[in-house]
Structure formats: structure tokens, C-alpha cells
């Protein structure tokens, strides 16, 4: 007799995913309540609001899911760890998420207070609901649901919740390097960010890195009259304009020596996955008010985001920018820039090449490094891709889109680089989740399907990649 509805795990006969899904359905309201309780706890790493009480709350959620839970101190805000052994021979999955959130400002732009979660129109509104509390909670509730129905997990599961993701995870790499045994796993799964803009679920294999820097040029020791001193004192704004022009040509080619040394072509599986991603380029151009995409022409839309590095001038500052005119000869100028890194590019190496370029073309200009994150890539045709896809399809009803590399940056290099683990992203958020902005929200249907997704992925990984009904 099936204990369906009793909450008692059934032992002996294997419990199918359908019963685990039914458990998730039955607990829908209770799981939303759990999420609301989590969002109600502020956890703003940038200001400290609600930290470190939030670490305790996160530890309690990990424990409630049935995992052994602990808070691990770092030089900054603590990490929260969890683990529970699965059957011998099954893979070990390390789940990564973050319990810190962005500051909620500006408060008056919210329709309801950021730390007083409200459900409206099938969405939960509140800071952190989507980024990232709802997404790692879905993973924890999947563990809890599997345990409720089966009494055991299909894989060994470890959990690592970061308390500093929103401030750049400054202590994560050092922690990982010092706790390799504790974090030892076969693969990493993270859930963060949105699904495809068109609504399709996606499986993400990598991210670009980023290296920010500032170029500072100086002229005279004070601002000068452009008539009395123009032609006498050099203009640092022109110095920067010439330097920047020497770094990237009109055809969009970055002309810093050696810059592309570690940019490798995409593999066949990656190129094929990019071709399958949906995009209406004309609609994107219309939406952005653009006549043309950036140079060079002839690159595919997603190829631009996944396969190529960029050099972006974020801002160019100096002299007078106010109303009317001021005939000033500026004495200081600053260009803020970032590079998006791909493939085997490493921030340190790229910084050195940029510094060499600056020394050669504008020796008086100073380059100041402003923080970086390495790129990360897991092959699309990795051995875990098949079971993860099968799990996603079982819960979501369709094969996910495969995204080889996201244009933005996340600290995934800690896993692929420091720990050497293949790393997979399963974003659960709605495309209009407004993360980092007022009225952040999570579509509760996505949350609900996300719990089932996480359960099904663990199930398929444990089954060694068989199809949903293949065990
Ligand atoms: Zn975020």
C-alpha cells in the first residue's frame, strides 16, 4: 500500500520520480511559506544588514532539508555547508548558491517593502527571492522531497552557500583551495539568474570572465586656460583618446599584442549549441534602437557573447562637462574600462599585456587594476550533460536550451579552475525577475518546477544517465 499523502518514506520498492513530483505538488503552499520566511531575513553583504543571523537561518534550512549543516568562518561573511551521503558508487554533487543579497535601495521604488515578501499575481516579491534564495532553496527542497519519499538520496549531495557573492566572492577561492577534501565532488550544480529571455529553460556550461581597470593620465599640475596655455601644456584627454584608439581599431579588432593568444575556437558541440539558441536579431536591434550590431560584422549573435573577448570603455572622464562651455585645458583624465575574458584567457596575463601596451604607447599613463574574475567553461559534451538534460526534461517537459557560455561573469572558476570540477548552471528565475533592482520577484511556477527539476537531476545523475523511465 502506497503511503502517498502520509509523508512517510516508502521503503523497499523504488519510488518513481512521479511520486516525488506529487510530494512537491502537495507541499506547494508550505514551500512558498518557507521561501517567504527566508526572504524576510535580510542578508545584505555589502552593508552587513541581517548578517550573520542570515548564516544561521541558511544553516537551519540546510538542516531542515535533511543534510548535515555547518557554518564555516572566512575572512569575510561565513559560508554555509551541508552534506549527506548517497549510495556507494553514485556521483557526488556539490550545489553552489549564495544567501547574501543586493542592497534594496532605492526603497521608495518598491511596490511592497523588500524584506516583507508578498505574493502577487503568482510571483513572490522581495529582495533575494530570485537572487538567490528561491533558487538554492529549490535545490534544498528537492533534497527534502527525495528524502521524504525515498528515505535516501540518489547521489551524495554537498551544499556550499556563499555569503559574499554579491560583493564578488572575495574569500571563496581561498576557502575552496584550503578545503578541497571537504568540497570534493564529481560535479557542481548552481542555480542563479534567469531562464532564456523567450522563457525556455536552459543549461549553462560556462561564463565569460572580467578584468576591470582604470587608465589615468595627467597633464599640468592644475587646470589651465585653453587660450593662454593651449599648445603649451599637453591635454591628458587627448592622451587617453590616442591610447584607447591604439587598443582597438575601427573594425572592432582589439590590437593589444598577444591579447588573443589564449582565445581558442569553439568546439563543435559548443558551436552547434549556439546555433540552436533562439534570437531575433532584428527585434533586438529594434528594441535597442540600433541600426547595426557592433563591429566586426559577420559574427553570430551568441558567438559574440560566448566566443569573443571584449574591451569596453565604461566611461571617459575629465575636464568640463557642464552647461554651455568652459575653455579649460584639463590637467587630469580617467578612462574606466573592462575586458570580458573567454576560454583560456587569464586576468593576470591580460593585465600584463595591457600594461605593456600602455608602456609602449603612452608611457606617462598609469593602469590601475580594479578587480577581476576568471572565465569558466565546461564542455557541452561532458559525460554529465546527458543525465542532467534528462532530469530537466523529466521535470520541465522539454529538452533545455544548451548555453555554452553566458556573456556575464560568475565566480565559477573556483569550481572549474581551483577544484577542477565540471560545473553546470540551471537558472530558475523568470526573465523579468528584476534581480538587483526594485520589485525583485520570483515566478512561483518556476520555483515549483525548479524544485522538481533539482530532484529529477539528482535522480538521473544517480541513475547514471538513464532516461526518466529507464531504471
Ligand atoms: Zn546577484
Helix content: 25-40%
Question: Which blocks of ≥5 consecutive residues have pLDDT under 50?
Answer: 1-7, 466-471
Describe the main β-sheet briefly: 6 strands, mixed
Tally the beta strands: 19
**Structural shape:** globular
Strand order of the biggest β-sheet: 1-2-6-3-7-18
Helix-strand makeup class: alpha+beta
- Rg value: 25 Å
* Strand coverage percent: 15-25%
Question: How are the secondary structure elements laid out?
Answer:
Elements: H1 17-26, H2 28-40, H3 53-64, E1 68-72, E2 79-84, E3 92-98, E4 118-120, E5 123-125, H4 129-150, E6 156-162, H5 172-178, H6 180-183, E7 187-190, E8 202-204, E9 206-207, E10 209-218, E11 224-225, H7 236-247, H8 268-276, H9 281-288, H10 301-306, E12 310-318, E13 328-329, E14 332-341, H11 347-361, E15 366-373, E16 376-377, H12 385-396, E17 401-403, H13 413-418, E18 423-425, E19 441-443, H14 444-462
Parallel strand pairs: 3-6, 3-7, 7-18, 8-17
Antiparallel strand pairs: 1-2, 2-6, 4-5, 5-19, 9-16, 10-14, 10-15, 11-13, 12-14
Helix pairs in contact: 1-4, 1-14, 2-4, 4-14, 12-14
The structure holds zinc ion.
What would your notes on this structure say?
Strand 4 and strand 5 (123-125) form a beta hairpin. The protein contains 14 helices and 19 strands. The chain is α+β, with helices and mostly antiparallel strands. The longest helix is centred in the N-terminal third of the chain and has 22 residues, at 129-150. Residues 1-7 and 466-471 have low confidence and may be disordered. Helix 12 (385-396) packs across helix 14 (444-462). The protein has helices at 17-26, 28-40, 53-64, 129-150, 172-178, 180-183, 236-247, 268-276, 281-288, 301-306, 347-361, 385-396, 413-418, 444-462, and strands spanning 68-72, 79-84, 92-98, 118-120, 123-125, 156-162, 187-190, 202-204, 206-207, 209-218, 224-225, 310-318, 328-329, 332-341, 366-373, 376-377, 401-403, 423-425, 441-443. The protein binds zinc ion.
Amino acid at each position: 500500500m502506497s503511503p502517498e499523502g502520509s509523508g512517510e518514506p516508502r521503503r523497499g520498492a523504488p519510488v518513481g520520480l512521479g511520486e516525488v513530483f506529487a510530494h512537491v505538488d502537495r507541499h506547494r503552499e508550505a514551500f512558498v511559506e518557507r521561501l517567504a520566511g527566508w526572504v524576510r531575513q535580510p542578508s545584505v553583504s555589502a552593508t552587513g544588514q541581517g548578517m550573520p543571523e542570515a548564516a544561521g537561518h541558511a544553516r537551519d534550512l540546510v538542516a531542515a532539508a535533511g543534510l548535515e549543516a555547518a557554518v564555516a568562518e572566512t575572512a569575510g561573511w561565513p559560508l554555509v555547508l551541508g552534506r549527506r551521503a548517497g549510495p556507494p558508487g553514485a556521483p557526488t554533487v556539490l550545489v553552489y548558491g549564495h544567501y547574501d543579497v543586493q542592497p534594496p535601495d532605492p526603497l521608495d521604488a518598491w511596490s511592497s517593502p523588500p524584506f516583507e515578501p508578498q505574493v502577487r499575481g503568482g510571483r513572490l516579491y522581495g529582495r533575494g527571492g530570485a537572487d538567490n534564495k528561491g533558487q538554492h532553496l529549490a535545490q534544498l527542497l528537492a533534497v527534502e522531497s527525495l528524502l521524504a519519499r525515498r528515505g535516501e538520496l540518489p547521489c551524495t549531495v554537498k551544499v556550499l552557500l556563499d555569503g559574499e557573492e554579491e560583493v564578488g566572492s572575495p574569500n571563496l577561492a581561498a576557502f575552496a583551495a584550503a578545503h578541497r577534501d571537504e568540497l570534493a565532488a564529481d560535479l557542481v550544480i548552481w542555480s542563479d539568474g534567469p531562464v532564456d529571455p523567450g522563457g525556455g529553460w536552459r543549461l549553462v556550461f560556462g561564463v565569460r570572465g572580467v578584468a576591470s581597470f582604470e587608465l589615468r593620465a595627467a597633464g599640468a599640475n592644475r587646470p589651465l586656460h585653453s587660450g593662454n596655455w593651449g599648445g603649451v601644456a599637453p591635454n591628458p584627454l587627448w592622451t587617453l583618446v590616442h591610447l584607447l584608439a591604439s587598443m582597438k581599431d575601427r573594425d572592432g579588432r582589439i590590437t593589444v599584442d598577444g591579447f588573443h593568444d589564449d582565445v581558442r575556437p569553439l568546439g563543435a558541440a559548443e558551436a552547434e549549441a549556439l546555433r540552436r539558441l533562439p534570437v531575433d536579431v532584428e527585434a533586438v536591434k529594434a528594441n535597442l534602437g540600433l541600426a547595426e550590431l557592433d563591429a566586426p560584422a559577420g559574427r553570430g549573435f551568441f558567438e559574440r557573447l560566448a566566443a569573443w573577448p571584449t574591451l569596453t570603455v565604461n566611461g571617459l572622464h575629465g575636464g568640463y562637462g557642464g552647461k554651455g562651455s568652459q575653455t579649460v585645458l584639463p590637467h587630469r583624465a580617467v578612462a574606466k574600462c573592462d575586458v570580458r575574458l573567454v576560454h583560456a584567457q587569464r586576468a593576470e596575463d591580460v593585465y600584463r599585456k595591457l600594461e605593456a601596451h600602455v608602456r609602449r604607447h603612452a608611457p606617462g599613463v598609469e593602469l590601475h587594476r580594479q578587480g577581476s574574475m576568471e572565465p569558466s567553461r565546461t564542455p557541452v559534451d561532458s559525460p554529465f550533460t546527458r543525465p542532467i538534460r534528462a532530469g530537466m526534461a523529466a521535470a520541465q517537459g522539454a529538452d533545455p536550451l544548451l548555453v555554452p557560455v553566458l556573456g556575464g561573469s560568475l565566480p565559477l572558476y573556483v569550481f572549474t579552475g581551483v577544484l577542477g570540477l565540471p560545473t553546470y548552471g540551471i537558472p530558475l528565475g523568470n526573465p523579468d525577475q528584476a534581480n538587483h533592482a526594485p520589485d525583485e520577484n520570483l515566478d512561483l511556477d518556476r520555483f515549483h518546477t525548479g524544485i522538481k527539476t533539482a530532484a529529477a537531476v539528482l535522480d538521473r545523475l544517480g541513475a547514471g544517465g538513464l532516461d526518466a523511465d529507464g531504471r
